Amino acid sequence: MKPIHLLGAIPFLGILGGIFFANRVTPYVLGMPFILFWLVMWVVLISVTMAVIYRLDPANREELNS
Residues 3-38: pLDDT tens digits? Predict the structure, then answer.
């Protein structure tokens, strides 16, 4: 399996797998309950991860497209 595929699995595990561990309300982070902060944080991290995957994907390199 390519590292790009493993990198693409990280957001899936972060949101769906981590939600069971982050399921609490009491600590507030940036004025949000922890569970809401966890989800918002992963939405931002998914964007960063997809940008990294885009940059690493050999199909998106200029030398190959020409």
Answer: 788 888 888 888 888 888 887 778 888 988 888 888
Distance CA(25)–CA(4), nearest Å, equals 34
Q: Of 43, 65, 57, 44, whose CA–CA distance to 7 is shortest?
A: 57
pLDDT at 43 over 80: yes
Which residues have C-beta within 8 Å of that of residue 11, sequence separation ≥ 6?
42, 45, 46, 49
Backbone phi and psi for residue 24, each to the nearest 5 degrees, phi listed first: -150, 155
Q: How far does CA 15 lie from the centroid of its chain?
A: 8
Residue 52, class by beta-carbon neighbours within 10 Å (0-12 exposed, 13-18 middle, 19+ buried)?
middle
